[in-house]
Specification:
Length: 307
C-alpha cells in the first residue's frame, strides 16, 4: 500500500470537515451527508480515515468488515477505491465489500464490468420526492394527506406547536424514545439492540448539535413531544435527507404534520427530499409510496471475488 491507513472512531469535532468531504462529488443517496455516520457509529462500530479531501469509512456487521464508497472528488475515486481494496486485502486479510454504493460512483469507477468484482443491486433503494410537493400537498394525489393535516389542526387547535429542537430539549427526546422503545419491544417488531443503539445515537447527536450539521423538528401537544424528525442537507444536490421520523401512532395526522412542518421550517431551499429506504418492511414501503416519489436513489453491493 502507498499509505498507512489508520482508522479511528468518528469524533463530533471532525463532523464539519467531513461534511465538506462528503459533498465533493454527486451523490443522491442518504449516505451523502454525515448524519447517519454518527447516528449509527456504535451499532456498526464505525471507523474513519480521512485526509484534507478524502474520507474512508469502515464498518462491521454479522458478516464481517465492510466499507462505504470512498468520499472524495470523482476524479480520485479510483485512487481511494484501490487504497481501500489494498487495506482489506493486506491488513484485514479479506476481500473488499462495499455496501450501499451509489450509481454515480460505480459508473465513474467503471467496475460494473470489472471481472474482479460482483455487483448486486440492493433492495433498499432510497425514495426521492419533490420538496415543493411535500410542503404544499396540492392536488388530488395528496388529498388524503391534506385531509389528515387539516383534521389534526382542527382537533388540536391551540394545543399544538412545532419547535426546532436543540441540545436543551434532550429531556423531551429521551422521554419520547423511552416510550417508543418500550412500545416496539412489546410489539416484538424490532430487535432490542437496534432500538437501543438508535435511541442512544439520537441522544448523542442532539447533545452535539453545535458540531454536526443537522436539524431536529418536533411537534408538541400540550407541551409533550408527540412527533419528531431529524434531517440533514446535501447542498450539492439541494436535497434534504430525512434520517429519522417518529410519531405517536395513536394521533391521526401526526406523521403528515411533522413531515410537512419540518420541510416548511427547516429546509425552505431544498428542491429534493430523500426519505431513505423502507428497510424491506411492507408497511413502511406503502407509507413511502403514498407520498408519490419522483424517483429513487439505487444502491449496490460491491464484493471483490476471492483473493
Amino acid at each position: 500500500m502507498e499509505k498507512n491507513l489508520v482508522f479511528h472512531k468518528p469524533l463530533f469535532e471532525e463532523a464539519a470537515k467531513l461534511s465538506k468531504i462528503y459533498a465533493l462529488r454527486d451523490n443522491r443517496t442518504c449516505d451523502s451527508t454525515v448524519l447517519d455516520t454518527y447516528l449509527w457509529k456504535d451499532l456498526y462500530n464505525t471507523q474513519i480515515y480521512f485526509e484534507d479531501r478524502a474520507a474512508l469509512i469502515l464498518m462491521q456487521d454479522e458478516k464481517g468488515y465492510f466499507a462505504a464508497m470512498p468520499y472524495c472528488r470523482e476524479e480520485e475515486l479510483s485512487k481511494y477505491f484501490e487504497l481501500l481494496k489494498d487495506y482489506f486485502n493486506n491488513v484485514l486479510k479479506c476481500p473488499l465489500r462495499i455496501e450501499l454504493a451509489d450509481e454515480d460512483a460505480l459508473r465513474a469507477l467503471g467496475v460494473l464490468c470489472d471481472p474482479r468484482f460482483t455487483i448486486e443491486e440492493s433492495k433498499l433503494k432510497d425514495y426521492l420526492y419533490s420538496a415543493d410537493e411535500l410542503r404544499k400537498l396540492e392536488g388530488k394525489k395528496f388529498q388524503k394527506k391534506r385531509n389528515l393535516v387539516n383534521k389534526f389542526m382542527k382537533e388540536y387547535e391551540g394545543r399544538w406547536e412545532y419547535k426546532t429542537m436543540c441540545c436543551v430539549d434532550e429531556y423531551f427526546l429521551e422521554e419520547f424514545m423511552k416510550k417508543w422503545v418500550d412500545a416496539r419491544l412489546t410489539e416484538g417488531t424490532e430487535s432490542k439492540d437496534t432500538l437501543i443503539y438508535e435511541k442512544d445515537g439520537l441522544i448523542d447527536i442532539l447533545r452535539n448539535c453545535d458540531k454536526v450539521t443537522f436539524r431536529v423538528g418536533g411537534i408538541f401537544i400540550d407541551e409533550i413531544l408527540e412527533a419528531f424528525t431529524v434531517g440533514s442537507y446535501n447542498s450539492r444536490e439541494k436535497m434534504a435527507v430525512i434520517s429519522v421520523e417518529k410519531g405517536n401512532f395513536a394521533i391521526p395526522g401526526i406523521y403528515q404534520m411533522i413531515n410537512q412542518q419540518f420541510l416548511l421550517h427547516s429546509y425552505e431551499d431544498a428542491e429534493l427530499v430523500n426519505r431513505e429506504d423502507d428497510m424491506g418492511l411492507e408497511g413502511l414501503r406503502q407509507a413511502k409510496e403514498s407520498y408519490n416519489p419522483i424517483g429513487y436513489a439505487r444502491k449496490y453491493r460491491v464484493c471483490e471475488r476471492n483473493i
